[in-house]
Amino acid sequence: MPNTDPVCDSPQVARYLLAEAKRHGLIEVYPVGAITVGLAGEELSQMEALAPYVWAFSDDGKGVEDHELMLRACRKAVELDRVIYPHCEFQGLSDRELSEELMAARDLWLCRRTGCRLHLAHISTPGGLELVSLAKERGLPVSCEVTPHHLCLTRDEGDYAVNPPLPDRETREALVKALKGGTIDAIATDHAPHTPQDKAAGAPGISGIELAFPLLYTRLVAPGIISLPELSRYLSLGPARILGLAKGLVRVGYDGDLVLFSDEEFTAGEDFFFSKSANTPLLGTRLSGRVWATVHRGEVIYLDGAVKGRDFRDHREVIQGG
Questions:
Q1: What is the C-alpha radius of gyration for the chain, rounded to an integer number of angstroms?
Q2: Which of 59, 171, 238, 318 could bridge to 167 as Cys pair (CB 3.0-4.6 Å)?
Q3: pTM value?
Q4: Is 190 annotated in the active site?
């Protein structure tokens, strides 16, 4: 996402992100460019210059409140064949659900008027999902995502600061129902590894990447709410189709990207995290579905707690030896 420092609102920043990802060689990175300069919501970014390096445009944790500016962004995205990826929230409304639904309705209407492809980030309300469902029924080029923490956690279990906020139990059940019903296209972590100091100062966000699969496997697959192939579709195939990538299936012509996991139980501790912090309410929670290995284009990147280039044993010996 473009909320980097500096903001990804210029081709120079996007090129740097791509170069660093290639240098490390651990995963593929597909940058999102900022809709507005500095994510300030006042002036369009260098969208045309950014387009060769990004797959979508977003102001990440901020909704673009200026209607004329968002209309221009949607029209420019059509010209550039790129996706608009909005965070739906109008600031200043005390009703957070209404805030999301009003901006989702506006952006879906702009999608209808301009024909731009729209992917709605971290939908968290039944009303927002209803709007997406209606848009799809009309044949609009729309997709949406929901997060693991909105599917599996509620504010009743502890009011952990995330944006959008954690749902109540009834809303969480509605999100799961929409997942099973096909309204939701992908599960995305909304990963935000804030430092303890940032969290203490009130920064909303959760370290979502490391525990996404175990949390969803434990809370949704193990109880039989969704199947493992369905979870794979939401975490892999759905996102790949949104980005236009040949990933998410084990099939000839697709990239050799795989995840191997063990059904063993484990306790989520800080030593489980590779990102820069472990800000999550799940520390100390017992989960199952521990990721054992990741394979990227046929090369083992992560194996049994070690990452390529960091005390990494010969993966061929380990895999061939079982």
A1: 20
A2: 171
A3: 0.92
A4: yes
